[in-house]
Fold this sequence. Notes:
Shape: globular
Largest sheet: 7 strands, mixed
Helix content: 25-40%
Number of helices: 6
Mean pLDDT: 96
Strand content: 15-25%
Radius of gyration: 16 Å
Order of helices and strands: HEHHHEHEEEEHE
Amino acid sequence: MRPNSVPAFSDLVKECHRSAVHLELRDAYSVASEADDFAEWQACGRITPESVKRRRSWLDLVRSTVARGVEVRRARVVSLPASEYIRYEHAGTYLNVEAGEKVRWLPRRHAATLALPGADFWLLDDRLIRFGHFSGEGASAGHELCDDPAVVKLCAEAFDAVWQRATPHEEFAV
């Protein structure tokens, strides 16, 4: 594991040739980059044009990555009834899907028999993992890179197991 000097995610994904898959395991995040969007959603109950503008760099990155032939998939393991944060994520996920990302949701009770890593991660081209660490309150606590073949295999199998059981975004209600 390499916790120091982790390159920006955009730099890592630009090096992808086949796949970038993301497993999210938390019911709430409190990352600074989403604070305005989340507060706005809480106030008005919808994703606003301003929120779409703030997400533009991510959506453009997904579009350009998918246009290069890289499959981008995200699987979210969530508790139900859903937390307020998960309802917010669900409300904005249509933007990810429109940009070319494939997103699925798995109720946590359906993940009970799966062996899952203890942290969220991105697995890039089945060769490099970028773990995301968070505080108990959901603030970012940094990232680590790992290319250990055994850990890569564990994460690939965990993602695939969640993906198989999960429901596509378009069919999932919170």
